Amino acid sequence: MTEIKILNWDMQLIDDFDYGNFTGMPPIEDDYSPCVIDTETLNKHVVVVIYIMVFLLSLLGNSLVMMVILYSRASRSVTDVYLLNLAIADLLFALILPIWAVSKEKGWIFGTLICKVTSLVKEVNFYSGILLLACISMDRYLAIVHATRTLTQKRHLVKFICLSVWGFSLILSLPFFIFRQAYTPNNSSLVCYEVLGNNTAKWRMVLRILPHTFGFVLPLLVMLFCYGFTLCTLFKAHMGQKHRAMRVIFAVVLVFLLCWLPYNLVLVADTLMRIHVIEETCDRRNDIDRALDATEILGFLHSCLNPLIYAFIGQNFRNGFLKILATRGLVSQEFLARHRFTSYSSSSITVPSNL
């Protein structure tokens, strides 16, 4: 009987993150574990309200961002193309949030296909986001530090890069599509999580370490390198206006890190505990579960924050939006002239390609 309890405890520790954190695992009986596992780490009604608010804000904000960028075709910069793809990724993610909100309240009731698709979209959103930001950092690095237009002048190359980002993000996310399914663990209610067979612990570590190495750590190092040298160049050259024009980009990167870095740090701690680098205790297990829940919600908030950055910091975005309203007759040309903001660039949202 003791051996059965220990085995169930090990399996619970393995599966905790995957369907206890994001997919709403039902409560587990006390006799499955020597510890009391706190399965309700956050108030599910509060989480549902947050999901719905993020859904509405993201749907409205990212739709406006896409409209402004697509409308400003003549002045669209390479950075705008990357930001357009970032808005598309956030919009797609927002569309699946109502499904996760319902699952938080009622459990997983949507079947295996929806489980696979929503898990895939969530992962693709995360990886495409940081990879696109890494591409922006490299573009700004080449344009400012090396004063080259090679990349920015070849629009077909930029399209190829964006397609490559989407393809690589899809590859990193495929394991979630392949292995996730609607499943009933321990005769409990239906959940959405990975089913990996006998080597569950081994494969979960592989599926966790490899994607976060190539889809988070490496792009983050690229951004730190590129923006470090970019900032040094701007300050040394005393490029006042160009420095101000970079505010939106720096704000976008900073908000992404503030939203997703805590989650990934907690995930690293969880991984280290599972491979016994960090001693595992009942209190630590519950603390990490609560931290995963809280930081993941913080990560979800990211999908609706970029449009707010553009609206409050991006002068060109506001100019582009007012111009669209004036073209549609919703505001007068006099109003547009009075409220048009001084622009630091020709780009619809951020900085020009020839910066």
UniProtKB/TrEMBL annotation:
Receptor to interleukin-8, which is a powerful neutrophils chemotactic factor. Binding of IL-8 to the receptor causes activation of neutrophils. This response is mediated via a G-protein that activates a phosphatidylinositol-calcium second messenger system. This is C-X-C chemokine receptor type 1. Pfam families: 7tm_1. It is a multi-pass membrane protein. GO terms for biological process: calcium-mediated signaling; immune response; neutrophil chemotaxis; positive regulation of cytosolic calcium ion concentration. Residues 61-310 form the G-protein coupled receptors family 1 profile domain. The keyword Transmembrane applies. GO terms for molecular function: C-C chemokine binding; C-C chemokine receptor activity; C-X-C chemokine receptor activity; interleukin-8 binding. The chain crosses the membrane at residues 48-70, 82-101, 126-145, 157-179, 213-235, 247-266. Its main location: membrane. The keyword Transmembrane helix applies. It is found in: Cell membrane. Keywords: Cell membrane, Chemotaxis, Disulfide bond, G-protein coupled receptor, Glycoprotein, Membrane, Receptor, Transducer, Transmembrane, Transmembrane helix. Belongs to the G-protein coupled receptor 1 family. GO terms for cellular component: external side of plasma membrane. Interacts with IL8. Interacts with GNAI2.
